[in-house]
Amino acid sequence: MGENGFEKWVLTVTAQTPTNIAVIKYWGKRDETLILPINDSISVTLDPSHLCTTTTVAVSPSFEQDRMWLNDKEISLSGGRYQSVLREIRSRATDFEDKEKNIKISKKDWEKLHLHIASYNNFPTAAGLASSAAGLACFVFALAKLMNVKEDESKLSAIARQGSGSACRSLFGGFAKWIMGKDEDGSDSVAVQLVDEKHWDDLVIVIAVVCSRQKETSSTSGMRESVETSLLLQHRAKEVVPKRIKQMEEAIANRDFASFTQLTCADSNQFHAVCLDTCPPIFYMNDTSHRIISCVEKWNRSEESPQVAYTFDAGPNAVMIARDRKAAAQLLQRLLFYFPPNSDIDLNSYIIGDKSILQDAGIQGKNDIEALPTPPEMKDAQKYRGDVSYFICTRPGRGPVVISDVSQSLLNPETGLPK
Ligand code: ADE
To answer: Record's Gene Ontology CC terms (predicted)?
Structure first.
């Protein structure tokens, strides 16, 4: 290890990893421990400048145990999922040497050395925006860099998968596919990149974070109940998804927005139909979610070709993918017409992320929202003020990166404790 005799060194790596939203959904495991799914899934990666996890990992001979801080609070690493990931990463660690700092760590040393990990999500963990996907992907990516793991992103994705299924797709930018695999040990259940973020850079993503009073069923228990009770889920996994995956891959390769929209909306709706087909039924969407679907469906039908796709995960939030900036601006006008902010919220905190879409929509202040006309395709001019907490405007984004700027490290480089 360190050859200066004092063993005071602390070695750190900081990484940033995006979240992702499935457009062909993962719902149902065939192995709960290894996290192996019953069907393939496809996702779009969201721009990490708006939604991401930053994680700093550190190693030092002075650390007495593995410790982790999430969003400034210390959390336990004793859970099975963190332990599986730590074991898998440690077993792939290789020799490391930093001649300048006089640090040498052999493959065997990694087994004994303890780690400090600090992680921060730049969006509320409770907003239901797949924070565990970005979080576990960042955990694996940062540790792999620290421990000099030589495996490629797909191999790392199989490790991230064991922490949180959908985390495997967050190791890639653009669009990614999680291949369900056949092997019992899960070694072929990996994610691959379909296209990078530059391939379809017209797309704009608008997320409505919907207010909800209800405590949602966790995805883990929801999936388990669907696997045990829903016949529709079996049909979906065997007959529907394999065809949809092929069609979706084609739609993405050809930037065919009409097919992309048809497949994305149909798959989200089927996933929620499976939830209703579960005994007892699970309701993730609420009235606001249903109103957003109606608004988008009516608008798409009134146009020559679809302008926006929608998809909902295990919660009420709507993720909408607009074909280009013009469609995104028109979408925002419609959403703000129906869901104006409460009087105590300012426009800057009601629409976050890429605010330039607001300018395209001609909205400079809250008065412009109140003056929006009823969308021409809608007769119902009723408003639902305050039913959306806030909107996030973003786009498809890149995969994980190492951040070399030490000022962004979440751990003190001398003590290895949170800054
Ligand atoms: N779960 C939610 N966010 C996380 C993070 N940033 N790291 C690890 N687990 C998480």
So the answer is: cytosol; peroxisome
